[in-house]
Design a protein that fits this description.
single chain; 125 residues; mainly beta; Immunoglobulin-like; globular
């Protein structure tokens, strides 16, 4: 049986739509096969202005109790760089929790980000 969590995980695994900087060398996965049936743009430019390399990035619907897959996968987001990510997992939600992990071991978690209302999100110290 396919559950909402299964669909959300599959969509998040293919969520990176485009790479915003040349320093990220990994190939862009295909666009998610599941899209919400509304007119909201859930693509968010994630900016890393922390001084550290971002090694992991998670975006999970705030209604879920666990983190979804690492969207960066085997890529990293160096300090001073950005990446555009499609947060749409097909469930129609707009409010997501973000978690970023950095090369120094620090994690920064941000709760209840409305991805239907923002185009950019900045990680700073």
């Amino acid at each position: 049986m396919i559950t909402l969590k299964t669909v959300a995980r599959a969509a998040m695994m293919g969520a990176v739509l485009s790479i915003a900087t040349a320093s990220i060398a990994a190939a862009t996965p295909p666009a998610p096969t599941v899209q919400s049936n509304d007119s909201y743009d859930r693509r968010v430019m994630i900016h890393n202005n922390t001084g550290w390399t971002m090694t992991h990035f998670y975006a999970s619907d705030s209604r879920l109790t666990d983190w979804q897959e690492d969207i960066l996968g085997s890529s990293v987001l160096p300090n001073g760089n950005s990446v555009r990510i499609n947060i749409d997992d097909g469930n129609g939600g707009c409010v997501y929790d973000f978690k970023a992990r950095f090369s120094n071991g620090q994690e920064l978690t941000r709760m209840r980000i409305n991805v239907c209302q923002i185009a950019d999100y900045y990680y700073t110290r």
